[in-house]
Amino acid sequence: MKLRCLLVLGLAAPLAAGATCVDPAPDPNNTYDAARTYPKQVRKYPFIRIASAAVPEDVRVVRDLSYVRYGSRCLKLDLYLPARAPRDTLPVVVFVHGGGWNAGYRTEFAPMALRLAQRGYAAATISYRLAGEAPYPAAVDDARAAVRWVRTHAARYGIDPARVVLAGGSAGAQVASLAGLSADLHPIDPQAGSGVSGAVQAIVNIDGVLDFTTEESRRHDTDPAKAPSPAAAWLGGRYAENPGRWHEASPIRYVRRGMPPMLFIGSAQSRFQSGRDDMVARMRARGATGRVLLLPDTPHTFWLFDPWLQSTVDATVGFLDEMLGR
């Protein structure tokens, strides 16, 4: 059965013939992108430049593919592929953008997707439901739906359905990690048992939180006089109001033997990697592979800029080549 759409209740159903998708109006408050982040960072790092999203001749892009539907609402992805047909099927990396769960665009990972395609990978950058449209766990469900869409349509695009990777930056890294670690697990994955696996063969976490319940994660939400943090807004309340949800949304909770190998790429801003060291220790105790690369003297959004993006790409390709047997 092809997974062509997903209803709010998590049930698969076909797209209605002739049905059209309705995209929400652009949100004027959604101002998180590389162009707006650059002026904030260039003062401290004058050597940086925004990573290029220009499509080179050796890459082709298939844009605006609808991968899941909720009523009349369709979510879309862009697919980046080598321009020349490869000898073998391609591993694919599904990217989840950052933005504090309430902002951002899938184009954030276009520069990295382009460079992966030049290195012999397919890459998909996805849009997902932000907190203002649908709170947790909507974004996580969307990421798993994208994995299932890629696996279902793999043959059409020369993709290997047995080599699917989830990756993301910041909030997207948390979403990608949780989606990959909880795939096919009842009851947290509503599509478990759908006939199309949401499992991935590796995860790349770029400066994303692994444990919402640490003191570092919670300290921004302990003062009721202050507005809730983006994490609290996405999770539907502060930790004291719903601790179970904060635990459930923490990727560290799903460490187990046989889990996908993970690469952690971190900035010099430790608050964005809450729980990482503990998670890596737990993984190693259970025989799971966890690798860490820290980029010194970098801002949280380092992957938006050169020269740091190239280091991120090189580390990702090296890790995935090893884990996927290339």
Automatic annotation (TrEMBL):
It comes from Massilia yuzhufengensis. Pfam families: BD-FAE. GO terms for molecular function: hydrolase activity. This is Pectinesterase. The lineage of its organism: Bacteria, Pseudomonadati, Pseudomonadota, Betaproteobacteria, Burkholderiales. Residues 1-19 form the signal peptide. Residues 77-265 form the BD-FAE-like domain. It comes from the Bacteria. Keywords: Hydrolase, Signal. Gene3D superfamilies: alpha/beta hydrolase.
